[in-house]
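hiii, so i know i said id send this last week but things got crazy w the move. better late than never?? heres the sequnce for the chain we talked about at the cafe, plus the structure i predicted for it. fair warning i was half asleep when i ran it
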Amino acid sequence: MAKRIDVEDLNVYYGDFLAVEEASIKIAPLTVTAFIGPSGCGKSTFLRTMNRMHEVIPGGRVTGKVLLDGEDLYGPGVDPVNVRRTVGMVFQKANPFPAMTIYDNVVAGFKLAGAKKSKKEYDDIVERSLRGANLWEEVKTRLNRPGGGLSGGQQQRLCIARAIAIEPQVLLMDEPCSALDPISTLAIEDLITELKQRYTIVIVTHNMQQAARVSDRTAFFNLAGVGQPGKLVEYDETTKIFSNPTKKATEDYISGRFG
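okay and structure toks below
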């Protein structure tokens, strides 16, 4: 079942540098939340704290809490690997394993974890996941060809299939369409709307029209200046953020006066 996310008083660091300061946010299950804001304001950094990918970076650490249905992902004894199974992630650049077949790309998470499954079980997972990513009909006759041979949009949907294969409850997407053409972008946006029926989704996007199209709620991040930490300025229903924001900084960004 999709989970709710509650972030409380989160500070995110790279070594001694404070990258995001005192951010708190509540994300309901089975919704799409968009993070918008100028480059360098901490959107992607904040996103990566939600599945503990931030700490993979040397010096990356946090203070505060990230709660998944009330369980602190940074609590004592919590295994980061299990966190990343529950909270899947799709990156800005499609990153299928290029030499691996389409089939093996989808089941890579299971094989890396040493899971013991039958051929039939893997076949079912591959079909379910590729159908879930709206890719099955396009690739079902060439599952044994390299994933790197697909188009950019197909590769990104393959990465989504790989992420949902392990049945996470939350799906994080870090600018998943930034390298794609308009047709592929539309396919991913349609897919996000479908995936919302099963997953809680958080997406970072530089495309404000995309945020307006796909998200239920939008969070605007900003930073006071170079070397200053990013801050969560405003978080509300997407329609309100785009039509009647509370903060002047949000209005200035939405209207194109800066950023």
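btw The radius of gyration is 18 Å. thought thatd interest u
miss u guys!!
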